What does this fold into?
Amino acid sequence: MSSYVLAGLVLVVAVLVVGILDPVPVPAVLPSLASGTPMTDGSLSVAVFVGLPLALAVVVLLRSASRTPVEIVLGLLAVPCLLVGLWAVYDYAVSASGVYWGGPFTIASGSILAFVVLVDAGLSYFV
It folds into this structure.
């Protein structure tokens, strides 16, 4: 159940960043990392853009230990998302470049995983 909540949060953050819901004001603590702006004291935005998808990937991987075929496939889909998230954390902590690409890549891969997890939730509920 927690993976469904995390998947919903990841998709809400992705929708706010992309700007699909223009009437919804995006708070100042969630700057759009997709513009390639330098990271200056953006630890909260990194926690949102990288932490949520990374937590979702970890939860989905832990769910795959149940050995059902659907959970194993979801776990296989979570591995690239986990690797991208770990790369983003490493890039934020170690790299001194002016452009931080870890956030946009992680939120993109996390959105794909979140969509698949929510489709799985819908299929298991309605079928």
